[in-house]
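Checked the freezer inventory, then went back to the computational side. Two predictions to log before the end of the day. The first one is the construct we discussed on Monday; recording sequence and tokens without edits.
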Amino acid sequence: MPATRTTVRRGLAAAAALPLLAIALTACGYGSQAKADKVAPAAKGKKIDGLDTVRVGYFPNLTHATALVGDQEGIIQQELGGTQLSTAAFNAGPSEIEALNAGSIDIGFIGPSPAVNGYVKSQGKSLRIIGGSASGGVKLVVNPKKIKTLDDVKGKRIATPQLGNTQDVAFLNWIAAKGWKVDPESGKGDVSVVRMENKVTPNAYLSGSVDGAWVPEPTASKLVSDGAKVLLDESTLWPGKKFVITNVIVSQKFLAEHPAVVEAFLRGTVKTNEWINANPDKAKASANAKLQELTGKALPAKVIDPAWPSIQFTDDPLAATLDAQAGHAVKAGLLQQPDLAGIYDLRPLNKILEAEGRPAVADAGLGVS
């Protein structure tokens, strides 16, 4: 495995010098603790590899609907047979990576920034990305009384979820493309980039503390329900209007020891995505039911109905876009050039797709050799 270089944040003391993107929160940003494990419907049939349980982490976010629906509908459990699916809900990327590294979970759904940083921090030894889950679902939403055009964003206060997270990097990259200048760490410049957790962004918007936000769903649609307007959908900035927002990762140790379980799990995610795309309304209701179970509150129709269609559920990890996102962070000065060779192992997924007569997905030259 080629040596990797560690991400850094300029100007911080060594004691606080965690990789910048590794501290990024997930789409909703509701804290950092995992909820207690939940066990799926009873496992039936023969255990795969004789394994009793496979432990899976995901977030209570719409962008993790492959996990939400696959769990809620029992589709993933069906593929695992007698091996029980046990799940834990996380609200922050770093805590899920820590759980994976500690062996508390075996497989996880996670965004591109935590996946990159987990891989880089471990010098390429902790995880592999083994499949895709979701694309899109990120928007620039603004106060229509203050911002009517994209050029009007200059001089305004725009929220992002956290310094160095996936949306923060995307917004900084967009600002640079406009020819405007912003200090990436302080957020000060031609635009004021205000970092805050997504759960507090709606109140900040209503109070006038921010004029808009570059955020994922469902936060974007929550802001729209509070009077904001969608000014830009990030998908329009990407080729084919697709970019990775959620990946499937696995511990390298677990992949080596239980490849048949990993393959069965991926069959479950593939079948889940197929069901979601064939039954969008039922899938939306299923995801919302799981969100209610996990968080105690379902999303109202005025939020979930506009949010759901903006997310595409796909088995393709869209590897080229992850590589581009890392490049954007480097360009912004938030990330040292990482060595991502070997971060993907798409062989199990492509085996499943081939069996279904579907084309293979690419690793952008970043797969295992």
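The second is the one RB wanted added to the comparison set:
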Amino acid sequence: MDTIASLFSFITTPVSWVIVQFHSVYGALFGPDTGWAWGLSIVSLVILIRICLIPLFVKQIKATRAMQTLQPEMKKIQERYKNDRQRQSEEMMKLYKETGTNPLSSCLPILAQSPFFFALYHVLNSIASNDTIGVINERLLESAQKAHIFGAPLAAKFTDSSDKVEALNSSLTDVRVVTAIMIVLMSLSQFYTQRQLMTKNVDTTVKTPFMQQQKMLMYVFPVIFAVFGINFPVGVLVYWLTTNVWTMGQQMYVIHNNPTPGSKAQAAYLERLYKHVTRHGKTRNRRERAIVKAIVAKGRDRNEYERKFINGLNKSGLAAQSDGTVIRSEATAAAQAEDGTPATTGAAAPRRQQPKRQSKSQRQSGTVKAAGEPTSLIKSDEPQDDAKPAAAAKKGNAKSAGSTRSKAQSGQRKGPQRPKSPSKK
């Protein structure tokens, strides 16, 4: 173990130095030999590392979304060149190059964090073995061995024997209870983080093998943590539980404020954004303007939630601009009155009065009725007595035309008959 620690001293020494610096701060508050001082030092190490990894986390989000977008194209390439593995790999690399996507970007935070995890494991293992490592000298080594977290020594493991646990001034029951609770919390936090990603922040309109892999990892990762967790010291369990909780909170923030397009989280976010914009008539900050700008730039490629958001703004008299701002639309501005008050719409708007339909007798007698005015009669130049015979004659002509039509329909032809053609015989 000393040989391995010496080979990786370039990482174990900085990690031990950071822990010692945090221990000097917390030791002045809680006491140098307490579990609070050493435990909070490990937690602070996690926070420092994760803050430094935020840029990689942003790249991971972008890479994951890009991979989700490329899944249909990747599936087509696999089906087209399923019998030619080399051509399939070439087309995949060509697709990654054209879209600027790197599949390894989604693993960057884990890969970047693994050296610190490895170094912390060796530091705590050296403390359990009563060996100095990095900047931890004999005095700090003795202080770390006295530190207990809820009755469990910092360097104790679930699989340690009773003799080794007693040498660290603790009982085997306390060590196994504390480590078991930490392992369960670590597995549950990992499961909830992955489940939150799959249920809320995945585009449900695209069904790809990538989603099936993520669902499988949702159940595999907690089992891996439970199996390997029994071999981790208590200090390493504190480190891993803290980083899981940080990841869960960081992901909740991203899902709430920058969800994946087409996901349930985006539907909830656009609903909140719509309520704010319609209430205040503008977007609040640069992030909201960037999201509105991206939705406007998609045009006809918008998904269901984005189209609903744009249509809702239009119905409310607002229009989203290409720069991400929201202004009052020209149609609403044109409908305003000259004094600046908005025109009434809906139930308050006056309905247009349609003229009433005239009866047949009114049309024949020349009756005219204007909308909203009493009925007035207009006398014709001819007397009404002459109108009755004309109407009767008109009625008689209609009857004669109807009888002629009925006779024609019965098969009797009228007019000159066409002579029959002579027989060829």
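For RB: The first helix runs from residue 2 to 7. The longest strand covers residues 318-320. Let me know if you want it refolded.
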